[in-house]
Amino acid sequence: MAGKNSKKFFCKECGYESLGWLGKCPGCGAFNTFVNAPEEASPKKGGPSLKPASYSWTSSEVTLKLSECGKEMYNRQSSGLPEVDRLFGGGITQGSVTLVAGEPGIGKSTLLLQIADRCETGDKSILYVSGEESPAQIRMRAERLNVTRDILVCAQTKFETIAKEIEDRDPSLVIIDSIQTLYSEEISGTPGSVTQAREVTACLVRIAKTSGVSIILVGHITKEGSIAGPKILEHMVDTVLDFEGDSSGGYRILRVIKNRFGKSGELSFFEMSTAGLIPVANSSALLISGRPLNAPGSVLTAAIEGSTALPVEIQALVTDSCYNNPQRMTYGPDRQRANMIIAVCEKNFNAGLVSKDIFLNVISGLKISDPATDLAIASAIVSSVRDIPVRANTLILGEIGLSGEIRPVTGLGKRLSEVSPLGITSVVLPGAMSKEIGKNKGEYDALGMEFIFADNIYEAIDILFA
Q1: Which of 32, 139, 176, 345 has its CA 20 to 30 A from that of 293?
Q2: What percent of the residues of the chain are helix, what percent strand, and what percent coil, each to the nearest 5?
Q3: E strands of 348-439, at which residues?
Q4: CA atoms within 13 A on the CB side of 344
Q5: pLDDT score recorded for residue 87
Q6: Which residue range(s) make up the domain with 311?
Q7: Can you tell me the distance from the alpha carbon of 186 to that of 167, in angstroms, rounded to the nearest whole number?
Q8: Are residues 103 and 15 in the same domain?
Q9: What is the Cα–Cα distance from 373 to 399, expressed in whole angstroms?
């Protein structure tokens, strides 16, 4: 049995707890992430209790059969921005907790101030809690964004004070910028520490579930690109929105990582202007604008992200390496999947890729995980190493297996409909999809495209460079 003075350790990445220090976390597999958990201070007399039992997220204390659980009706409120409402699944759900993450300067605070100005609240107010800016700074930014609503601004970082303000004001929406600046006097540790972030978030979730107020939290991003703090924060909240794109560029991508009240994986494009973030009406044209014609290493494909099909330009650059270990850099495609595709290309074409640096990029900074883009990535690599452009005005679709076979893709009609206005004249598809094209011949013929089928990567490359 553990001694009275035994210390607890937990992983600062995922929150896994242990009675002793561990070099590798059993929960997330990360190394050297265990830190000593500070002991919780005893609650002050008459102060709020932050024991685990006090922030249970549900009020039910009995076990019920599924048929006895009843139904829970969710009311939604519009954010005032149609594209943001779509990401939420139809509006912000009352009593929900949302985590908005992104790099510094990418537009998190700007977007939330726009939501605070336009959100439908009825006769209730909106409380903006800032731990990073003074009220004067918030007002200056609000004037720049032409905010007309008289928002309640609370420049506090102490949780107990913020909780009292929420109780007294009874707002419709609470925005907290950011969760890493909040602390509780009842919990040991500095603001932003794992313990403080975890416990304060748990208490805010309880407030949202019991009072019905919607809460939006701002989360910082680490240099690795993940949300700062323990991963448990992402599990505790209802929705996670992530900003993508270059903070120095003019466009932003807002992606749904998790959504308990709608679809995950959805994304929207915004343009950063002096008046704030403006939704982009034609994202398809944005993604391939300025695409070079007949350039080696540049190919066109269509990826499905959430329920949306997007035309995507993938570029590859293959050069002789001056290092003992050649570089493999990806910006957009998943790096592990890209390494697998490189290995398949080397096995089938013996192109000497093991001694070359390979750089892969998706234009506009979009991150893609759709396996239907495998063949396009392989084609871009081969095109660059041979210094020959692929067949002009051709869309490339197909998932690649380890033996080089090309497997069918889903959502073909949606992909083709999205790229049809872009001047595509031919489409390279897996051979197994010829039956689907034949069954719906009239529908696909109306698109005015030539369909070319390949069973393996060797056949596909022959077609693209014929």
Answers
A1: 345
A2: 30, 25, 40
A3: 356-362, 394-396, 399-400, 406-407, 426-430
A4: 24
A5: 93
A6: 288-464
A7: 19
A8: no
A9: 7
Closest CA to 116 of 168, 174, 167, 180: 174
Q: What is the DSSP letter of 286?
A: H
Averages of pLDDT over runs of 10 residues in the chain (466 residues) are 60 75 84 72 48 51 79 85 93 94 88 94 93 93 93 94 94 93 84 82 92 92 56 86 79 91 89 89 80 91 89 95 91 94 95 94 87 97 95 95 95 91 92 91 88 95 91
Query: How far apart are alpha carbons 102 and 76 in whole angstroms?
Result: 25
> Which CATH number characterizes residue 337's domain?
3.30.230.10
Q: How far is Cα 421 from Cα 86, in angstroms, rounded to an integer?
A: 24
Positive or negative torsion for Cα 211, 216, 217, 219: positive
Q: Where are the alpha helices (DSSP H) in 31-182?
A: 82-88, 108-118, 135-144, 159-169
- CA separation for the pair 361, 143 (Å, rounded): 38
Q: Which two tokens stand for residue 301?
A: 């494909």
47 in Cβ contact with 18 (< 8 Å): no
| Token pair for 111 | 């977007």
CATH number at residue 105: 3.40.50.300
Q: What is the token pair recorded at 170?
A: 């009874």
Q: What is the pLDDT of residue 49?
A: 43
Domain count, the chain: 3
Task: Please check whether residues 294 and 424 belong to one and the same domain.
Answer: yes
Strands 97-101 and 214-219: parallel
Question: How many residues appear in the chain?
Answer: 466
**Which amino acid, 382?**
V
Query: Is 137 in contact with 169 (CB distance < 8 Å)?
Result: no
Find residue 325's DSSP bridge partners: none
Cβ–Cβ under 8 Å, residues 212 and 252: no
> What is the spatial distance between Cα 60 and Cα 236, in angstroms, rounded to a whole number?
18
Q: Which amino acid is present at 181?
A: T
The dihedral over CA atoms of 271, 273, 276, 282, expressed in degrees to the nearest 10, equals -30
Token code pair at residue 369: 């995980």
Asked if 159 and 122 sit in the same domain, the reply is yes
- 197's CB contacts (< 8 A; 6+ apart) are 179, 180, 182, 229, 230, 233
* Calpha distance 119→91 (Å, rounded): 10
Enumerate residues 6+ apart whose C-beta is below 8 A from 288.
300, 311, 312, 313, 363, 422
CB atoms within 10 A of CB 396: 29
The conformation of residue 369, written as its DSSP 8-state character, comes to -
